[in-house]
Amino acid sequence: MLAIDFGAEGVVVISGRLDAAQSPAAQAFLDAVNGPFVLDCTRLEYISSAGLGVLLKTQKRLMASNARLKLTGLSRHLRDIFQYSGFDRIFEIEPADPE
Amino acid sequence: MSTLPARNLEPILAVVAKLAAPFDLTTMLSEVVDAAKQVLKVARGTVWLYDREADELVLRFAEDIPPLRIPAGTGLVGSCARTRKLINVPDCYSDPRFDPAMDKRLGFRTRCMLTLPLIDHRDELVGVMQVLNKPEGVFDASDEALATVLAAQCAVALQRVRMTEALIQGEKMRQQLEMARVVQMSTLPAAMPQLAGYDLFGTFRPADLTGGDTFDVALIDQGVLLVLGDATGHGIGPALSVTQMQAMLRMAFRMGADLETAFVQVNNQLAEVLPGDRFITAFIGLLDTAAHRVRFHSGGQGPILHYKAGTGAYIHHMPTSFPLAAMAMRRLEEPAVALQMDPGDVLAVVSDGIFEYRDAAGVEFGERRLLDVVRAHHKASMAELAARIFEAVAEFSRGAPQEDDMTIVLVKRSARPGVSRSFRRRLEAIEDIVAFTAEAFASEGIEAGARPAVDLALEELFTNVVKYGKSGANVTVEIARVAGGAEVTLVEDDAERFDPTRAPVIDTKAPLEERHPGGLGLHLVHKLVDAIEYRYLDEIRQGRTSFRKTMADGQKGDKK
Predict the structure, then answer these.
(1) Which of A49, A57, A83 sits opposite B276 (nearest CB)?
(2) Is A77 part of the contact surface with chain B (CB cutoff 8 Å)?
(3) Architecture of the structural domain at B187-413
(4) Helix H or strand E encompassing B30
(5) Would you kindly state where each structural domain of chain B is located, as residue ranges?
(6) Structure ipTM
(7) What are the CB-based long-range contacts (under 8 Å, 24+) for B389-395?
(8) What DSSP character marks residue B501?
(9) A82 touches chain B (CB under 8 A)
(10) What is the mean pLDDT for each group of 10 consecutive residues in chain B (560 residues)?
C-alpha cells in the first residue's frame, strides 16, 4: 500500500510501494502541490517505472514555473533504481547520509 | 407478493419475448420502458441504470445529451436503489423525497409513481425503474405485483445487454492491441546482418497483450546499428511509441546523423509527442567492425553487460542519460561509452522483461542468472545463446506467466583461434610466460622453429611493460597458430600509450655510452619478427602489441 501526505514544514512524505496500481493516487495528490517541494522518501519501499512516470510528470509541471522537486531519504536500493534508469539526472537527490 | 390475476400473464409473456431480442443498451432501455408502459397501462416510464463504481444512478437521454446522474440514496430513485425495495407514492408532491425538477424540465406533472429496483438473478442491482400516472386512481397491490415480476425480467435482460456490450468493448480493445502488435512486429529486422568476424543476433518475445519493446540490428552507413527500446506502460500506446522511436532513429541515421545527434533529436521529438508521464528506456549503439568498438548512449536502459572472453569477467555499463522522451535536452551531458570488443567478447543488452521475470513466489530472474547463462554459453552462436537465455527463464519461472516483453540483442566478436593467459606485471612472471608459450606451441601445433624468436620478443616486450607501465594491472598473452608460425599479442590493461614500434632505432655501431639501455631489446625484436604492430585504445586505456613470426618453407632456423 501507498501513503502520501504533507508532513512537517510542507514536506511531502511518501511511504509504501509506488507501483502501477498506486500511481494514480500519488499523481492526484502531487498534481495539487505547487511550488518547489521536498519529497521525503525515507519510508518509500519500492518504485516502478509507472512511479517514476508520476515523479517525472510532477517535475515537468514544476519546471514550467521554475520550481523543482527534491528527493530525500532514498534507500540504497531506490538510489540504484534512479541511477539505473538515468532519472538521477532529472531529480535533485539528497546525498546519502554517511552510515 | 400478492398473486397475479391470470389475465395479466399474456401481455407479460409477450413483452418478455421481446426483451430477448435487443443486443444494444439503447434499444434494450426503450424496450424495457415500452414493456412497462404496456403491462401497467401507463403513459410514462423511466429506467435508471446503476453505475456501481460511482455509486450513482444514470438516466440516459438521446446520444448527444449528457446523461443525468444522481447519487444512490438521494430522492425516490436513490432511496429505492439503497433499500432495494419498491416504493409506491400515491401523491408525489406531498412526498419530501420527490424532486420536481424533472417535471419542470419536461413541462409535466407527476401524480402517482411506482419506483422499483431492478435486481438480476445474481442479486445485483442493475438499475431502478419508475412508472407514473396510472390513468385512473393510484397504483394498487396488484400493480405492485405485476411491476415486480416485470422488473425481474427487465433486470436480467438489461444485465445481459450490459455484459454483451462489455464483451464487445473488450473484443474491440483486443483487436486494437493485436493491430498495434502487428505494427510493432513488422518493424523488427527480418534478418541479421552477416559480417565477417561477428555474430549478431536480436530477438523479441512479446507478452500476451501488453508491453512495448523493440530492437534493431542493421548495417547502416555509420556502422552496425544496435537498438533495444522499452516503452513504459501497457496497451497500445507503448507498442506504438517504440515503433515510432525505431522509425525516427532509422530516419535520423539515414540522414547522416551521428550517434549523439540522433539520440538528442529523437529524444526531443518523442518528448514533444508522448504524454508527460511516458518515456522509453533505450540503448542505441554503433558497432565499428574494423576498430572492434561499440559506441553507445543509453537512456535509462541498463545494465549493459560486456562479457570479456579473455578474463571471464563482466563489465557493467550504466546509462549515459535519462530515458528518451522524459525531457527535452539541448545536448547529452555525458560522452558516449566506447567499449572494445576483443576476440570472443559478448555484448548482451536485454530488456527488463527478462531481469524482472518473476516466478510464482515473486522472485525475479535477476542479473546474476543472466550472467551465468552468458558465461556458460558464450562460445555458442548468439542465436543459441538467446535460446539458452529463454530456456533459463522458463526453467526458473516454472510456468509463471510472462508479464512483459522479453527482448535480447547480442553481439559477439568471433574468438580468434588460439590460446591466451594473463600474467602479473612483474619480472618473475617471465618464467611462467615461457612455460605458457611452450604449452601453446605444443597444443596449437605451431612450428617449433619460431619458438626462440617468440620467446625473445615476448620477454623484451613484457620487460618493457613491467619497467614503464603501472603495476597492478594484468598483462595478457595471446598466441595463435598461423601458416608456418605464430601470431602473438601482448595486451596491457590500464596502460599509458607507448608504441614500441616507434622506439628510437638504435645505432648498434654507436659507442656504448650513447646508447639507451631500453633500445636494444626492441631493436632485436624488430629484427627477429616478421611484422609488429601497436594499437592503443584510449577509451579503455589498453595497449596491444601484436607480432607475427613465420618460418620460410623448410627453414628450421632463424629466418633473418
Answers:
(1) A57
(2) no
(3) 4-Layer Sandwich (3.60)
(4) helix B25-40
(5) 6-166, 187-413, 419-550
(6) 0.76
(7) B389/B350, B389/B354, B390/B205, B392/B365, B393/B354, B393/B357, B393/B365
(8) G
(9) no
(10) 55 70 78 84 90 89 76 91 94 91 84 92 88 91 88 84 84 80 83 86 83 90 95 80 89 91 94 89 95 95 91 92 94 94 95 92 93 92 92 94 92 84 87 92 89 88 81 84 87 84 62 55 82 80 88 53
Of all helices (H) and strands (E), which one includes residue B261? helix B259-273
Phi, psi for residue B504 in degrees, rounded to 5: -55, 135
Contacts of B298 in chain A (CB under 8 A): 86
Query: A87–B281: do the CB atoms touch at under 8 Å?
Result: no
* Fold classification of B419-550 (topology level): Heat Shock Protein 90 (3.30.565)
The three cell numbers locating residue B35: 414493456
- Closest-CA distance, A9 to chain B, in angstroms, reads 28
The whole model's pTM is what? 0.59
Domains and CATH numbers, chain A: 2-93 (3.30.750.24)
B-side interface with A, Cβ within 8 Å?
Answer: 232-234, 276-279, 281, 298-300, 302-303, 318-323, 326-327, 333
Rg from Cα positions in chain B: 40
B6-166: CATH homologous superfamily? GAF domain (3.30.450.40)
C-alpha distance from A49 to closest chain B C-alpha (Å)? 7
- Measured between beta carbons, the chain B residues lying within 8 angstroms of A56 are 276-277, 279, 326-327
